What does this fold into?
Amino acid sequence: MQKPATPHDEKTRLETLRSLKLLDTSPEERFDRLTRLAKRMFGVPISLVSLVDANRQWFKSRQGLDADETPRDISFCGHAILGDDIFMVPDATQDERFADNPLVTENPNIRFYAGCPLRVMNGSKVGTLCIIDEEPRQLDEEDLALLRDLAEMAEQELAAVQLATMDELTMISNRRGFIALAQHAINISCRKDFPISLVFLDLNKFKQINDTYGHAEGDRALVAFAEQIKHTFRDSDVYARLGGDEFVVVLTDTPPEIVDNVLARFNEAVAEYNAQAKRGYDICYSTGIAVYDKSKHDSIEELLAEADTLMYENKQKSVAAC
It folds into this structure.
């Protein structure tokens, strides 16, 4: 059996995949209708929209398959995302890469596989739209064109997810995406009695960067700040650009006394960026931290408002020193 190789852009690809916030989410009709179409049009028992994570392939939509994920090292889709066009295996039992693969020798007894990689806006291939049969077969040019068309429709749905819930400049969640994800995180934390804190971050003297160096440089500063957020905080935390120069992070299952340590690491990361970038200015920011208390916070908006107020108070004290 041949394990799939690692794409050259794996780090960016995984960051992009996880930024979609689709992994382990509930089924959605917009993806399910595509797998139903694929299953019916090609007359196959199994059709999937797969997302290839670090160690698994997880199925956002599945028709004819009970499992919701399988290990990446035995996945056919892991091979499919390495190319730019449809990856097809006419008969897996006759292919030395897959003949002894447990997905071939055991359920679901794959014989035929065809998967078209799914790209998102930055070009990363995050998964596939694929069809699977228990009998060997071939696709002709008309079939291949049809599978590409269905994959393009799946890519459009992925783009819609990004545009609706992600900030186009920094490629992290926007306010709409944040509110939904953060409220979900709070609900889980309440059920499991996990501590949760919200950090409101606002860039200091951002207008001066725009006025002095131009809006393109201002955009560069926003992107750089977002990159430090992505690299410092955990995948399980929820972070976003609310708009303008305002950012927010919800730290889940993190005791309040640990939040200061996390922010100290973030401050070091920003300071290191400033030292290396030498853009003619330093990125400085103010923070406000609010600890969730279910007795006084009825929603994520109330927690956000409290942190915003605290941030503004701290900004008045610190902006002159920045």
Q: What stands out?
A: The beta strands are 46-52, 56-63, 69-71, 87-89, 112-119, 125-133, 196-203, 238-243, 246-252, 285-291. Residues 141-165 form the longest helix (25 residues).
